[in-house]
Amino acid sequence: VHQSKLDFFCKLGYGKQDICKVLENLGQEALEDDVLKELIRMGSKPQALETQAQPSPLKLVARGSCSTTPGLMWLGGDERDPSDALRPIVIDGSNVAMSHGNKEVFSCWGIQLAVDWFRERGHTYIKVFVPLWRKEPPRQDSPIADQHILEELEKQSILVYTPSRKVKGKRVVCYDDRYIVKVAYEQDGVIVSNDHYRDLQNENPEWKWFIEQRLLMYSFVSNRFMPPDDPLGRHGPTLSNFLSKKPVLPEKKSQPCPYGKKCTYGNKCKFYHPERLHQAQLSVADELRAKIRIPLALGKEEERCQCSA
What we know:
Helix content: 40-55%
Distance between the termini: 78 Å
Strand content: 5-15%
Order of helices and strands: HHHHEHEHEEHEEEHEHHEEEHH
Shape: flat
Strand order of the largest sheet: 5-3-1-8-9
CATH topology of the largest domain: Rossmann fold
CATH class of the largest domain: Alpha Beta
Oligomer: single chain
Mean pLDDT: 78
CATH architecture of the largest domain: 3-Layer(aba) Sandwich
Number of helices: 12
C-alpha cells in the first residue's frame, strides 16, 4: 500500500521525502485525498509547477553578434541565425575613402566607419575592394590617411586587394569596379558606392538591372556614415527592407474619409470610417428602405391581431 501511494504521488510530481513525511503523520491507510490536502498544506508543489514558476534567466546578447541559441528567434519566426536574413555587403573602398576625405585624401577611416555601421546591423558577409597599389607609401599626388586600417581589415578577411603590377616602370591596374559588381551580383548582395557604374551597365544587361536595384548610396555627416532611409526613392522600399532578403511588408492603412460622419456613400465609400466599426455599413437608400419596412411590418401585425380577435 505504501509503495502504490508513493508511486501515485510521484507521478503527480511530488517529492518522495514529502510523501513519506505525510504518510508517517497520517498513517499508511490514509485516503489519497487526505494525503493530497496535507501535501498542499505543507507547501509542497509538483516539480512541473516549480519549473514553470521559476522564470528563465534572460541572456544579454551584444549588438551585432550572432546567437545560435534555439530560444532566440528573429522576427521571421525561424530558428535560424538572424544574420542569414541580411544581404551580403560589397563596399567600393576607393569611393568610400575618397568621399570621406573630401575627394582630396584617401581616408581609410571612412572605410572603417562604413564597415562598423553594417557590423552593428548584424551583417556577417562584408567585403571591401581596394586596388593593391594603395599598400604603397603615400605620395604627394595620392595622399593616404590612416593606412594601418587597411592592414587590420585585411587580417579580418574583410579587405580584398584587386591586382596591380608595374611593367617597365608603368603601373598596370585591374579594373576594381568589375570585381565589385561581379562579386555583389554572384552573392545577391548590395553595392555600397556613390558611383553609378554606367560603363558596366552598358556592358551587361543583367548587371544593369542589378546596379539599378541594389546600389546603396551614402553620405558622411561629421564622421558618421549615413545611407538614405529610402534607397530607391520615396515610393521604394525602406532601408531595412532594402538590406533584407525577406522584406517585411507594411500594413495597409486606409485613408480616413474627408467627409467624416456627413458622408452619404454608406458601404460604397472607399475611405475609412472609425464610427462605423460596430455598425452595418448600409447605403442611404438601404437605410431608408429599412426604416420604411419597420412601420409597415408593425401595421400588418396589428391587422392580423384584429382579424384573429
